[in-house]
Specification:
The protein is an all-alpha fold and about 210 residues long. It is about 80% helix and about 0% strand. The chain is built from 11 helices and no strands.
């Protein structure tokens, strides 16, 4: 396959996945058809089926693609050792994706709230080991007395809840902001507030 064809394929797949995120978020899995996604992606339905044979295949690709993005956000746990640097970087990355990819976060939340009926054991394989590695890093910080004693999993859950709130409940955030999306300045203040509260809670200054 030539470079030009590879690039066309990459663009089309990206376009389809972003469209699918939005449609799945708005209509749910059961209420979504491949035709809906093709229409949102502005592609013929035949093109959609060329890249993704079934709705289930596309749905799983959306979710695991999003998990891949979140894993990229967490690379700071491997790149840095300073807990302040790691958590500041992680919170900002998570917040930024909550702002730029809110539909994907909603699809993920809906799948998890229903007991991951379509991901099943594949979710364990993708999520469990990765999360335990992050917990181990936090536990080491505690043992080295670099942060206050906290339950590592609970700290991760707090970060996920605080950052993904801005995606999963973006409509509520907008209502409470006089029916306006957060401005860049308001969003920056939100990032700094979440970061400050988390860091101070484990004994660090922002």
């Amino acid at each position: 396959m030539g470079n030009h064809k590879i690039e066309i394929r990459r663009r089309n797949v990206e376009k389809i996945l972003l469209a699918a995120e939005q449609v799945f978020a708005e209509k749910g899995y059961a209420g979504t058809s491949m035709g809906d996604i093709a229409e949102k992606a502005e592609l013929p339905r035949s093109n959609l089926h060329y890249y993704f044979t079934t709705k289930d295949e596309l749905y799983r690709e959306v979710l695991f693609g999003l998990l891949g993005v979140w894993k990229q956000d967490a690379l700071c746990f491997e790149m840095f050792d300073d807990p302040r640097v790691v958590l500041t970087s992680y919170i900002r990355a998570k917040m930024n994706h909550s702002r730029t990819r809110p539909h994907g976060s909603k699809v993920w939340a809906n799948e998890i709230m229903h007991g991951a009926p379509r991901l099943g054991e594949a979710l364990d394989e993708q999520l469990y080991g990765w999360a335990k590695m992050k917990e181990a890093k936090i536990r080491q910080w505690v043992e080295d007395k670099r942060i206050l004693s906290v339950e590592p999993s609970s700290l991760l859950y707090m970060i996920w809840a605080a950052t993904q709130h801005y995606a999963d409940f973006d409509h509520q955030v907008m209502i409470l902001n006089d029916h306006q999306p957060l401005s860049d300045m308001q969003f920056e203040r939100a990032v700094q507030t979440v970061t400050s509260v988390i860091l101070r809670g484990i004994g660090l200054e922002p």
